[in-house]
């Protein structure tokens, strides 16, 4: 009888522990950090909408990449959905990667480089010095914390280019691109794929014979121990993947109303609900 009682007690405790873990997975907030880059904004708001719709508590915070990686490595946040590895975010990975975990790959053909409108009659980075006048020696870039900013500094040194990289925000860079294309003027920006700019305009990425800009994967990073704390959510993000068409469609929907990105996320979820719901299985 004692053995039987012990067996029943152990089984009951196991069930209680499993139930408690399930409750914790559902109620403990999932903290997601993201920078103000189009694909990261879109993916984060989709994840937030889906998880919230499934009853999970979610907190999202807009933050620059440097503090983002630091916070994640310290365990002050849970997830980052837009890590460009192994190249573009190499510096961050070397500093913080030993305290982070990769729990999913969103997209496996992410590229960066220098971009011009299709009507500009050059095709390679090594042609830029012969055309300084038409670009006024300027490369319009984004924030200094972005990996593409660091790679562009390397490109200026490697080729070498008599150009200045103007540091701003993604929205400011895109405003300069819009203005230049409307006026049919040459403009040189730092660009990447996937991004909605390719859906709006006829552009080309300049050839990079010295291979400064290399192809990456967009990976989902978590703090250490996240999978154990949130097994169902971790399983969801292990299936959180897109091809180029769907990722561009998501960015387009979320970008329709910048003041209410969740509306676009909801629209995308409702269109692909069966597929997205299967990511929890």
What does this structure look like?
- The protein is α/β, with parallel strands linked by helices and 281 residues long.
- It has two domains: 2-110 and 216-280, Periplasmic binding protein-like II (D-Maltodextrin-Binding Protein, domain 2), CATH 3.40.190; 111-205, Glycine betaine-binding periplasmic protein, domain 2 (D-Maltodextrin-Binding Protein, domain 2), CATH 3.40.190.
- Helix content is 47%, strand content 20%.
- It contains 13 helices and nine strands.
- The protein has helices at residues 2-27, 38-53, 65-74, 90-96, 132-135, 147-158, 170-182, 197-200, 226-229, 231-238, 244-254, 261-271, 273-277, and strands at residues 30-34, 58-62, 79-85, 100-117, 138-140, 164-166, 189-193, 203-205, 216-223.
- Strands 1, 2, 3, 4, 7, 8 and 9 form a seven-stranded mixed sheet that branches.
- Helix 2 packs across helix 11 (244-254) and helix 2 (38-53) packs across helix 12.
- The two termini are 40 Å apart.
- Residues 1-23 have low confidence and may be disordered.
- Keywords: Cell membrane, Membrane, Signal, Transport.
- Residues 1-19 form the signal peptide.
- Residues 28-270 form the ABC-type glycine betaine transport system substrate-binding domain.
- This is Glycine betaine ABC transporter substrate-binding protein.
